[in-house]
């Protein structure tokens, strides 16, 4: 029997798994590794992990035998059935108090089920979001653990050691909550990431097609933007992308086909928002924009049939236009995060999770894809008012929106005039105008529902909770539909 000398085991030696192992090794933790394709274990030990303390295992039984108790085993396998199958192969070799950690992009409801099922067997489950991509995993990711709280003291030191750190040394990792809370927060992070990327693409489209800026000019603009309010990882890498040249010396970005892929976390965020009745419109538009981009052949065919505006480039003050786009991007980003936090608040209430909203912003400050200067303002907002109902009501964010809204509107108007689609900019502005409206046209909508379906309505001159039905045609009866919300 091998000596039980390893601090943690990891199954799944794809890019993220390998880099997390090397990160743990750098921080003094002895790691045992296993992969379903066993040859990958030997390849990893002989190559990337050469000269480290990492130990290779050639079976699940050997992996379990290498681990100190309570055993801590992290899975970095494909979300879905593969996670359940891997857990099933582990169970015969585990004992009460051992800890299984799922570090993939699992659906939060799956993590809730696994936490409860394994608790019945005496096994502690952790479902943790890990963000930052390949580089983050190697040098310090954002880690968002949830699941069985009894597991946290046993994984805290490892996770907080390998996580990214903010300026004062605070790790971008803390306990999120029970059941699937960790994966839920990661899902919302990814949804916001979809929004951030779409917003940046719309800014790029306005400046490139609308203003005629080339890649080198875009590189200069985005580099400048990254020195101010928009300072973030995604703005930074966008500036680098614009500077990258293909083998023939032309901008590489111009050679890339305009069809976007997705792995599902953005879609999950939108589905959850619909289930909870939360108007997370910007992430929804970002998901649909990727879907539209995938219709490449249809779009090319339509471009020869459907006409747009005669003027295709902006002819006014170029500097002012660039600043309007920058402000529109910043305002829309605020809306996206406000919507994301509305969703977190709603799901916390629905599931009884005590989510630390400011702490989540801190976890996203470093290591992850959406890391930015902006997130410190969110943390400050919740520190000022832990019961803040919406980020838009915080003094800092409302101040920015009030100051920048005119430029934001001008950017959207210019996009309409130029025939350049800005679904995320536009839906963000529509949400802003809707959220600040004391009265919306839903009164007519309720009248329509009552007219054709006797669905009833409330009245402005009666207490909330009292419902009324009108016999609109004179031919209907007095019976109304039961009042309910889906």
Explain this structure:
This protein is an alpha/beta fold and 486 residues long. It is built from 19 helices and 8 strands. The protein has helices at 15-26, 39-46, 60-65, 81-90, 108-119, 133-139, 152-162, 181-210, 215-225, 233-243, 265-276, 281-293, 296-303, 318-351, 357-363, 374-384, 395-418, 423-435, 442-453, and strands at residues 8-11, 31-34, 55-56, 72-75, 99-102, 124-131, 142-147, 177-178. It has an 8-stranded mixed β-sheet, with helices on both faces. Helix 8 (181-210) packs across helix 11 and helix 14 (318-351) crosses helix 17 (395-418). The longest helix has 34 residues, at 318-351. The protein is globular and about 80 Å long. The protein starts with 7 loop residues before the first strand and ends in a 33-residue tail after the last helix. 44% of the residues are buried. The mean pLDDT is 94.
Summarize the SSE layout with pairings:
Blueprint lengths: L7 E4 L3 H12 L4 E4 L4 H8 L8 E2 L3 H6 L6 E4 L5 H10 L8 E4 L5 H12 L4 E8 L1 H7 L2 E6 L4 H11 L14 E2 L2 H30 L4 H11 L7 H11 L21 H12 L4 H13 L2 H8 L14 H34 L5 H7 L10 H11 L10 H24 L4 H13 L6 H12 L33
Parallel strand pairs: 1-2, 1-4, 2-3, 4-5, 5-6, 7-8
Antiparallel strand pairs: 6-7
Helix pairs in contact: 1-6, 5-8, 8-11, 8-12, 8-14, 9-10, 11-12, 12-18, 14-17, 14-18, 15-16
């Amino acid at each position: 029997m091998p000596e039980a000398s390893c601090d943690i085991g990891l199954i799944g030696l794809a890019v993220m798994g390998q880099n997390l192992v090397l990160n743990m090794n750098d921080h003094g933790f002895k790691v045992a590794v296993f992969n379903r394709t066993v040859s990958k274990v030997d390849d990893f030990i002989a190559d990337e992990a050469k000269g480290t303390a990492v130990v290779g295992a050639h079976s699940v039984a050997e992996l379990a035998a290498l681990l100190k108790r309570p055993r801590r085993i992290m899975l970095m396998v494909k979300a879905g059935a593969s996670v359940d199958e891997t857990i099933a192969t582990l169970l015969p070799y585990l004992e009460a108090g051992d800890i299984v950690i799922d570090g993939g992009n699992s659906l939060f409801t799956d993590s809730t089920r696994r936490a409860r099922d394994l608790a019945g067997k005496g096994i502690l489950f952790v479902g943790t979001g890990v963000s930052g991509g390949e580089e983050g995993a190697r040098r310090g990711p954002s880690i968002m653990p949830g699941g069985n709280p009894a597991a946290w003291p046993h994984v805290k030191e490892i996770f907080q050691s390998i996580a990214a750190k903010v300026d004062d040394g605070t790790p971008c990792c803390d306990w999120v909550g029970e059941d699937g809370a960790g994966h839920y927060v990661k899902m919302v992070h990814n949804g916001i990431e979809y929004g951030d990327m779409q917003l940046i693409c719309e800014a790029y489209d306005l400046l490139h097609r609308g203003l005629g800026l080339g890649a080198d000019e875009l590189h200069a603009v985005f580099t400048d933007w990254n020195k101010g309010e928009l300072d973030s990882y995604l703005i930074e890498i966008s500036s680098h992308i614009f500077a990258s040249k293909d083998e023939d010396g032309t901008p590489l970005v111009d050679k890339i086909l305009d069809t976007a892929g997705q792995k599902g976390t953005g879609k999950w965020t939108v589905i959850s928002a619909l289930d909870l009745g939360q108007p997370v419109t910007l992430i929804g538009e970002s998901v649909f924009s990727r879907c539209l981009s995938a219709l490449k052949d249809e779009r090319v065919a339509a471009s020869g049939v459907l006409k747009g505006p005669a003027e295709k480039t902006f002819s006014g003050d170029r500097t002012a236009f660039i600043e309007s786009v920058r402000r529109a991007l910043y305002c829309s980003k605020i809306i996206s995060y406000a919507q994301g936090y509305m969703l977190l608040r709603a799901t916390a209430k629905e599931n009884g999770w005590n989510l630390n909203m400011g702490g989540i912003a801190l976890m996203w400050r470093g290591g992850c894809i959406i890391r930015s200067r902006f997130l410190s303002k969110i943390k400050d907002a919740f520190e000022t008012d832990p019961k803040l109902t919406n980020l838009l009501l915080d003094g800092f964010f409302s101040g920015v929106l009030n100051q920048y809204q005119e430029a934001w509107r001008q950017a959207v108007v210019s996009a309409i005039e130029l025939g350049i689609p800005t679904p995320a900019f536009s839906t963000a502005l529509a949400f802003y105008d809707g959220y600040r409206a004391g009265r919306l046209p839903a009164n007519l909508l309720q009248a329509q529902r009552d007219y054709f379906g006797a669905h009833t309505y409330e009245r402005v001159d009666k207490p909330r909770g009292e419902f009324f039905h009108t016999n609109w045609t004179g031919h209907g009866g007095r019976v109304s539909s039961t009042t309910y919300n889906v």
